[in-house]
Q: What sequence folds into this?
C-alpha cells in the first residue's frame, strides 16, 4: 500500500485496537449478563467480538463460544485475555460482510456495538438471525440514535446509529421479545443511551 491509498476499515480498526489499553478484567455488557445469566450454557456466537470481553465472559460460564472479528489485532488481544482468564474461545478472523455463520448453529448470538451503514447492517443481521437455533436468542446492542448531538462516544452519523424499530423487519422469522433503551451516566454530566434488542427463534 502507498501513503496515498486510503486505509481500509479493517486497518482503521486494527489501529484503534492497538491504541487501546489491554483489558485488565473481563467485564461483559450488562445487557448480555442479564440475558445470559438465566440461560443454560450452550453454543454462543459473538459477531464483531473486539477484545473479546463478552466472548470470554460467556466461555467462563461454560458456553462453547465462537467469536468473529476482522481485526487481527483485536483477536490477538482477545486470545491473550482468554489465556489469562483460563478459557477457550474459537477466535474467527473474518469479515462479517463476506463470512456467513452456519444456519441454526448457536443458542445465543450476540452483536454488540457494530455500527454499519444500513445495507451492510441488513446483511449481517440476516446472517446473525439465521444462525440462531430453534428456541435460541439473539441480542443486539448498539449506540442509540438519540445520542446524536449529545457529545457522547459512538458514531456521529445517524445512519450508523441504532433505532431498533428499524431493524425488526430484518430479523424475520425471529420474534422480537424486547426492545429497550438503556441510559449510562458517563459521570461528567453526559448521558449515553444504548439501544437493546432481544429476539428468539420459535421452536416450531
Ligand atoms: C466497537 S467494537 C465492539 C467490540 C465488542 N462487540 C464489544 O462490545 O466490546 C466493533 C468491532 O467490530 C469489528 N468490525 C467492524 N466491522 C467488521 C466487519 N465487517 N467484520 C468483522 N468485524 C468487524 C471491529 O474490528 C471492532 O472490533
A:
Amino acid at each position: 500500500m502507498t501513503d496515498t491509498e486510503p486505509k481500509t476499515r479493517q486497518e482503521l480498526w486494527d489501529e484503534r485496537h492497538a491504541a487501546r489499553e489491554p483489558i485488565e478484567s473481563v467485564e461483559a455488557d450488562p445487557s448480555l449478563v442479564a440475558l445470559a445469566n438465566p440461560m443454560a450454557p450452550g453454543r454462543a456466537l459473538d459477531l464483531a467480538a473486539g477484545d473479546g470481553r463478552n466472548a470470554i465472559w460467556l466461555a467462563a460460564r461454560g458456553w462453547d463460544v465462537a467469536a468473529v472479528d476482522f481485526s487481527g489485532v483485536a483477536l490477538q488481544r482477545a486470545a491473550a485475555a482468554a489465556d489469562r482468564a483460563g478459557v477457550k474461545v474459537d477466535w474467527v478472523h473474518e469479515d462479517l460482510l463476506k463470512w456467513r455463520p452456519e444456519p441454526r448453529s448457536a443458542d445465543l448470538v450476540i452483536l454488540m456495538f457494530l455500527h454499519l451503514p444500513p445495507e451492510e447492517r441488513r446483511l449481517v443481521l440476516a446472517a446473525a438471525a439465521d444462525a440462531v437455533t430453534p428456541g435460541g436468542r439473539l441480542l443486539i446492542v448498539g449506540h442509540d440514535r438519540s445520542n446524536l448531538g449529545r457529545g457522547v462516544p459512538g458514531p456521529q452519523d445517524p445512519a450508523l446509529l441504532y433505532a431498533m424499530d428499524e431493524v425488526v423487519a430484518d430479523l424475520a422469522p425471529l420474534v422480537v421479545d424486547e426492545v429497550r433503551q438503556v441510559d449510562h451516566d458517563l459521570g461528567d454530566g453526559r448521558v449515553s443511551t444504548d439501544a437493546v434488542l432481544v429476539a428468539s427463534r420459535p421452536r416450531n
Remarks:
- Helices lie at 9-19, 30-36, 53-60, 72-85, 118-130.
